[in-house]
Amino acid sequence: MSIGIEYYVLLSMGLFCIGLFGVLTRRNALMFLMSVELMLNAANINLIAFAFYHGNLTGQVFALFTMALAAAEVAVGLGIILVLYRNFRDVDVTVPTTMRW
Amino acid sequence: MEGAFSYAPAIAAFPLVAFVVALTFGKWLPKKGAIPGIAATAGSLLFSLWMLAAVASGEVYHETLYEWTAGAAASEVGTEGIDFTFGILIDPLAALMLVIVSLVAFLVHVFSLGYMNAEGETGLPRYYAGLGLFTFSMLAFVYADNLLMAFIFFELVGLCSYLLIGFWFRTRSAPSAAKKAFLVTRFGDYFFLIGVVAIAATFGTVAFAGDDSFVAAAETAINDGDTLFGFDAQTWVTITGLLVLGGVLGKSAQFPFHTWLPDAMEGPTTVSALIHAATMVAAGVYLVARMFGYYALSPTTLAIIAFVGGFTALFAATMGVVKDDIKQVLAYSTISQYGYMMLGLGVGGYVAGVFHLMNHAFFKALLFLGAGAVIILMHHEQDMWKMGGLKDKAPVTYYTFLAGALALAGIIPFSGFWSKDEILYDAMIVGLEEPVILAAYAMGLAAVFFTGFYTFRMVFLTFHGEPRSEAAEDPHSIGWAVKAPLITLGVLALVAGVANLAPVAKIVGADITFLEHWLDGEYGAVEGLTYSAYGELVAYETGVIGSEQLTVLIAAGLSLLLAFSGAGLAWKLYNVPEPVPYKDRLGTVGDAAEANYYQDEYQVWLANGLTRPVARAADRFDQTVIDGTVNGVSTASLFGSSWMKRLQTGIVTNYAALLVAGFIGLLLVLGLYGGWFL
């Protein structure tokens, strides 16, 4: 027996909302990074679920690309967080507010 | 004579080289650039004479040398494409003019040695560079084979006159006179430019000669009864002809664009000689002669040329009567004499007009150089009332100046008589049938009297009587560089009339009208550019009084009588030991003539009272409406963005929240329009 597509979509939506909630409420940059990971993986679940549903491999290939992208994003993100820490002795995203008009 | 014409470009190139040399190395050269200038103009003169000989042996030259751009647009008469080229056209007219220009330029260069170098002027390299460029422009203009090339060099001539009139730029008056000359002639040239564009757009060609010339195209269009730009061909030819005439009137100082020329006396006298005799002012009349075939197609234009010419001849002559500055008298005589040439050309007397152009070049260069010699003698005094008695102290200057004066006044047998008489004769025989021309003729005839009067007033005041100042009692000496050009031109002023003794030819029936044969292409000619070809185009009827011989005698007798009575009046009034001014007795007429009939005043008023308010209104429109719109847009966006920028807080969380809010908003809108919530 197979699980209906709607359950995958619900799971993915839940995961995405948790990530979004994290981005909007947390102030710690590390938490930001994790939340973004959650949202990306929510998208991955969707991609794979629909690839399975349609019976072709396109979605899976896309998911692989997304994972590679996520890895790169983490590398850059951690770099930014390191610099942030060096400059402000803190990883609170509300502290550096000078990058504006 | 085979290869003569392949050297034609050198005629104009020599002075150009002299210009570059004088400009770059003049400071270190002995005589500050005069030597290259003299060598170059002598070279031009020799080559021009060679061209003259080549044309006399029956050859002409019409060659395109360089095509600088070509277009594909179809013209109004239907020809495809138009070429803009530089080319050389050497026909009898151009060859004659080349000799005149290079001869006068050469003599002016030589004279400058005595007038500028010997007087210790500063800035001489600039002066000789200017003369070189001036000569180059004029020579290139003379043998231009198309209207656009002619226009380009016409403008260059104007620029050079600006540079040279303003030579003494540290004085107040010279730069102002230079600007005036430039602006007034530019005003006329503006119409010329429109005329060039109109002719190019109409006929698809700007060539002067040949089957594909605009003259031939215009003739065809008139014969076919074409409609050009909504006018019939005849009217359109008149309109374009008048537009080109604007440039002619400006350059040749014809009414109402004559005001620049008297002021141009601020330049060195040698420059005045060059401007008045061979370059600048001659360019206008030469252009009419060059495209005479085009003007001949339009009787209206010809009548306007004749009338303006006759009017200017009289108008300027009356102003010359009351001037005290020797150069001012000559300036007004120039305007007046060019009026005669226009009159001659306007009545279809192509030969007469060109003949007078040639004679005038010689005697006016002579008179100006003579005036320059007088100014040297007088230690730079130009007021004739401070001269007097120079006759015995400077005989060479006196006799050459007298020769020029006799030619200017039109006294037989000096050159000016023959050409002026021919013009007046041509005007008279046409005037017997056409009332407008008769009026122009009457004015030209009246001007003869004034010419005789002011010319001899000038001679008597300058050379006769008792010296009226210390300078006149002890004149400065003059050298060979001054005397040699004077003598050369003095001889020419005496004998140049032999070129075309038309009255004698008509009376005794001898075949001695050499210039007429020359311009009629008896030796060599470009087809369509001959006197007889023009004669067929000009639509004037001519009449005679009694017989042709009698008419010739009447015309010559009348003009001689008037010239003698003018000269005689001057003799009576001014050839006394202590002459006194009679100007006050003229009353308001004299005041008006002294003030140049308030021509400057009304032109300044036009500029101040009409042009300036219009310009101010345009400026205000630009400042308020156009700038206001532009500024308003930028102010609105500045103000808007000063609020919008507050969205950018620098806090990442806010951006994320805005993104999400925007996304949700978008979903809601899509949902509402997509009907998901129904």
UniProtKB/TrEMBL annotation, chain A:
<comment type="similarity">
    <text>Belongs to the complex I subunit 4L family.</text>
</comment>
<keyword id="KW-1133">Transmembrane helix</keyword>
<dbReference type="Pfam" id="PF00420">
    <property type="entry name" value="Oxidored_q2"/>
</dbReference>
<feature type="transmembrane region" description="Helical">
    <location>
        <begin position="6"/>
        <end position="24"/>
    </location>
</feature>
<dbReference type="GO" id="GO:0016651">
    <property type="term" value="F:oxidoreductase activity, acting on NAD(P)H"/>
</dbReference>
<keyword id="KW-0812">Transmembrane</keyword>
<dbReference type="GO" id="GO:0030964">
    <property type="term" value="C:NADH dehydrogenase complex"/>
</dbReference>
<keyword id="KW-0560">Oxidoreductase</keyword>
<dbReference type="GO" id="GO:0042773">
    <property type="term" value="P:ATP synthesis coupled electron transport"/>
</dbReference>
<feature type="transmembrane region" description="Helical">
    <location>
        <begin position="36"/>
        <end position="55"/>
    </location>
</feature>
<dbReference type="InterPro" id="IPR001133">
    <property type="entry name" value="NADH_UbQ_OxRdtase_chain4L/K"/>
</dbReference>
<protein>
    <submittedName>
        <fullName>NADH-quinone oxidoreductase subunit NuoK</fullName>
        <ecNumber>1.6.5.11</ecNumber>
    </submittedName>
</protein>
<keyword id="KW-0813">Transport</keyword>
<feature type="transmembrane region" description="Helical">
    <location>
        <begin position="61"/>
        <end position="85"/>
    </location>
</feature>
<dbReference type="InterPro" id="IPR039428">
    <property type="entry name" value="NUOK/Mnh_C1-like"/>
</dbReference>
<keyword id="KW-0472">Membrane</keyword>
UniProtKB/TrEMBL annotation, chain B:
<dbReference type="GO" id="GO:0016020">
    <property type="term" value="C:membrane"/>
</dbReference>
<feature type="transmembrane region" description="Helical">
    <location>
        <begin position="127"/>
        <end position="144"/>
    </location>
</feature>
<dbReference type="Pfam" id="PF00662">
    <property type="entry name" value="Proton_antipo_N"/>
</dbReference>
<feature type="transmembrane region" description="Helical">
    <location>
        <begin position="301"/>
        <end position="322"/>
    </location>
</feature>
<feature type="transmembrane region" description="Helical">
    <location>
        <begin position="438"/>
        <end position="460"/>
    </location>
</feature>
<feature type="transmembrane region" description="Helical">
    <location>
        <begin position="93"/>
        <end position="115"/>
    </location>
</feature>
<feature type="transmembrane region" description="Helical">
    <location>
        <begin position="229"/>
        <end position="250"/>
    </location>
</feature>
<dbReference type="Pfam" id="PF00361">
    <property type="entry name" value="Proton_antipo_M"/>
</dbReference>
<feature type="transmembrane region" description="Helical">
    <location>
        <begin position="271"/>
        <end position="289"/>
    </location>
</feature>
<feature type="transmembrane region" description="Helical">
    <location>
        <begin position="652"/>
        <end position="676"/>
    </location>
</feature>
<feature type="transmembrane region" description="Helical">
    <location>
        <begin position="550"/>
        <end position="574"/>
    </location>
</feature>
<feature type="domain" description="NADH-Ubiquinone oxidoreductase (complex I) chain 5 N-terminal">
    <location>
        <begin position="80"/>
        <end position="128"/>
    </location>
</feature>
<dbReference type="InterPro" id="IPR003945">
    <property type="entry name" value="NU5C-like"/>
</dbReference>
<dbReference type="InterPro" id="IPR001750">
    <property type="entry name" value="ND/Mrp_TM"/>
</dbReference>
<dbReference type="GO" id="GO:0003954">
    <property type="term" value="F:NADH dehydrogenase activity"/>
</dbReference>
<feature type="transmembrane region" description="Helical">
    <location>
        <begin position="190"/>
        <end position="209"/>
    </location>
</feature>
<dbReference type="GO" id="GO:0008137">
    <property type="term" value="F:NADH dehydrogenase (ubiquinone) activity"/>
</dbReference>
<dbReference type="InterPro" id="IPR018393">
    <property type="entry name" value="NADHpl_OxRdtase_5_subgr"/>
</dbReference>
<dbReference type="GO" id="GO:0015990">
    <property type="term" value="P:electron transport coupled proton transport"/>
</dbReference>
<feature type="transmembrane region" description="Helical">
    <location>
        <begin position="150"/>
        <end position="169"/>
    </location>
</feature>
<feature type="transmembrane region" description="Helical">
    <location>
        <begin position="329"/>
        <end position="355"/>
    </location>
</feature>
<keyword id="KW-1133">Transmembrane helix</keyword>
